[in-house]
Design brief:
The protein is α+β, with helices and mostly antiparallel strands and about 110 residues long. Helices cover about 40% and strands about 35% of the residues. Strands 1-2-3-4 form a 4-stranded antiparallel beta sheet. A hairpin with a 6-residue loop joins strand 3 and strand 4.
């Protein structure tokens, strides 16, 4: 009976991930006025001055119908207050570059 108690937790984690990805997909589509299709989750760990400043998954979406970008990178902050969706337009060319770009943007805006 022990194994049965684990299934709901695992199932909820999968359902929650699918729901989160669906929310991100809808937001990316609306924000960038194109169709977005989820490709993968990429773990990103950014360290500055020996301290972890970001460690979480970045969702990668292929874009269809966008005039300049073929993909986008999206994530939300742990507080649930902020959602970020960046287009893959240089210098943003990977999930890691997207996170670095946003960190620098936040730092320069005073959101340390």
């Amino acid at each position: 009976m022990e194994g049965a108690s684990r299934l709901p937790n695992w199932y909820n984690a999968v359902v929650d991930k699918h729901a989160r990805i669906a929310q991100f997909q809808a937001a990316v589509s609306l924000l960038h006025n194109c169709r977005a299709l989820w490709r993968e989750t990429v773990p990103v760990h950014e360290i500055i001055d020996g301290k972890t400043v970001w460690q979480c998954g970045v969702e990668v979406f292929d874009l269809y119908g966008h005039p300049r970008a073929k993909c986008a990178y999206a994530w939300s902050h742990l507080d649930g207050e902020r959602f970020v969706a960046l287009l893959a337009i240089p210098p943003v060319n990977s999930p890691e570059a997207a996170v670095r770009f946003q960190i620098m943007k936040d730092f320069s805006a005073g959101k340390k």
